[in-house]
Amino acid sequence: MREGIAAVIDSQPDMEVAGEAGDGAEAVRLYRALRPDVALIDLQMPGMNGIEAIEAIRTEFPDAQLAILTTYRGDARLLHAVKAGARAYLLKSALRKELCEAIRALAAGRRYFAPEIAADIAGIVGQDSLSAREVQVLQLLARGYSNRDVGLALNLSEDTIKGYLRTITAKLGANNRTHAVTIGIERGFIDV
């Protein structure tokens, strides 16, 4: 995938690949050493993930022009990336033209979100998000914990966990706990 992206970038007369990283920590080191105009960062990388890499780069370089490049459209991932400092969110399925447009927009100091991503953002605004505790509960449910076991793990009563489960299913528009876990994974609230 990196070779294909590098070939697209190198084929443009106004762009060149400054470097490539295999993981998040290396991306941070290379950014620090090379200071590229724009950095494309994969969301899923070994060790330090893309969001963590963006946060680390933005801490040192607040004006960095960073884009997430991913296969995931999940809204929680999208919000985390934007909150971390990503100025663009591109799908790996993006067309060559779109990738180049995004790089040029970032190099000019503008944000870039593909139309389908912009639609996702618009759909997210006004939706209820899950609290940190609700995400914890959902993560344990995804691991197969019963309400009782979730309560024991979080030092809460089983009735409190049932209340959280009602709130989670309502916020996600889920029919049951299994459906809530499925939606939680699809939307990027939890990983399995």
TrEMBL record:
Protein origin, superkingdom: Bacteria
InterPro entries hit by this protein: CheY-like_superfamily, NreC/VraR/RcsB-like_REC, Sig_transdc_resp-reg_C-effctor, Sig_transdc_resp-reg_receiver, Tscrpt_reg_LuxR_C, WalR-like
Start and end residues of each Response regulatory domain: 1-107
One Pfam family of this chain: GerE
Keywords: DNA-binding, Phosphoprotein
Record Gene3D superfamilies: 3.40.50.2300
Annotated CDD domains: LuxR_C_like (cd06170), REC_NarL-like (cd17535)
UniProt entry tagged with the keyword DNA-binding: yes
Name this protein carries in UniProt: Response regulator transcription factor
Protein species of origin: Massilia soli
